[in-house]
Amino acid sequence: RIADAVVHIVGLAFAVSAGTALLVMSFIRTGPGEFAAAVCYVIALLAVLSISLIYNQWPVSPVKWVLRRFDHSAIYLLIAATYTPFLVQIPDPALAGFALAFVWSAALTGMALKILLPGRYDRLAVLFYLATGWSGVALAGPLSTALPPATLTLIAAGGVAYTIGVVFYVWRSLRFQTAVWHAFVVSGAALHCVAVFDCLVISRM
Question: What long-range pairs does 23-32 form, CB within 8 A, spacing at least 24?
């Protein structure tokens, strides 16, 4: 539990510092829509790490069961919010709008299921997390032309980190299982945060 708290605190410290730098530096380098996407992403990143820290450190009680709903649903929020800064880069407004509508609809559906039907369909939810997270592969063509190569590499690396982490998420008997799983989550989130920074700031310097 202590190890898990350390992982979360490290992740939150990175998110606060990197998120602040991202917003400050992207403010003068992006349009209103791109900056709004960056704000949405940073808020979701901070929210998911904060909720996860509170939930995982809370003692077993009825309150923890309520927190579990928000913890699990926040994952969908982060997936959609992470996609947003990248999808708005697609030159075709119709395609970008459709992609945003799709990923946010999927995320809201997943969030509703986790909040309204807690504890049910948990195994299916893991597959839905992965499917939603990797759905961007369907737009590999448009994204590969709209995003810098370094950004694409970082996005893929973050997706791989999240996916490998799922192995430890389901490996309940492993010692320090929760801390290891969350270490992969923080790693994936950090890689995607750097990807957003590269897309909105570094590539425009």
Answer: 25/197, 25/201, 26/200, 26/201, 29/200, 29/201, 29/204, 30/200, 30/204
